[in-house]
Specification:
single chain; 218 residues; mainly alpha; 0% strand; rod-shaped
Length: 218
């Protein structure tokens, strides 16, 4: 933003110099300078005019170089923003694929549960499953710290990560909850389903928003 303000100030200076030149030409056209220039040192006037021209050329050149720098910076930030969109979209789509697999009871019992060690404090398979979609996290945080996006993206990212990890824990730990008839079991089953719906809806919303922003940016 400061770069644009500087360019705007330079434009004002250029316009001011153009105004002075036009004003002098108008006054000269009406011979207004006759009484002033009778005793004027024309060598000094020539030096003064040349100095103005040199300064004007310097200002214009500086403006053009500054404008190119700003254009390059804009393209760089735009590319960084698009990379952020791609990484966030890929992360959320991986989350959605994973929770949909867990939501399939047959797949869950046949392929997931046999790989879990429920006696372990931190089961390796479950922990890896919770971490997998967020492989791009360091790069995402680096891009956001560059200041190319607002804080809403990181808020949504953290919220989705927390919801995802909670759902994976609950869905695998209580994979057979529907086989029990007690009220507390039914309530827990309903809560797990609610967690899935909340996460699924949040993922769909963010994926749609990010894909639209990426499409409009390209």
């Amino acid at each position: 933003m400061n770069g644009w303000n500087n360019s705007f100030s330079i434009i004002k200076v250029i316009l001011f110099l153009i105004f002075i030149v036009v004003l002098v030409l108008i006054l000269d056209y009406f011979n207004t300078f006759y009484f002033i220039t009778k005793n004027l040192n024309f060598d000094f006037l020539s030096i003064f005019i040349n100095a103005i021209l040199v300064i004007s050329i310097f200002i214009i050149t500086y403006y053009l170089i500054d404008k190119k720098r700003l254009d390059d910076e804009y393209i760089k930030n735009k590319n960084a923003m698009n990379v952020l969109f791609v990484l966030l979209s890929r992360t959320y789509k991986n989350c959605m694929d994973n929770i949909n697999l867990l939501n399939n009871q047959e797949m869950l019992e046949k392929y997931f549960i046999p790989k879990c060690d429920f006696n372990a404090v931190n089961d390796k398979f479950m922990e890896n499953y919770k971490k997998y979609p967020f492989d791009y996290e360091n790069k995402i945080f680096d891009l956001i710290e560059m200041g190319i996006s607002n804080i809403d993206y990181i808020n949504s990212y953290i919220e989705i990560k927390e919801l995802y990890k909670k759902y994976v824990d609950m869905r695998i730990t209580f994979f057979d909850i529907d086989k029990y008839d007690k009220l507390e079991h039914k309530m827990l089953a309903e809560q797990i389903k609610l967690d899935y719906d909340t996460l699924n809806n949040k993922l769909k919303k963010e994926i749609k928003k990010i894909d639209i922003l990426y499409k409009n940016s390209c």
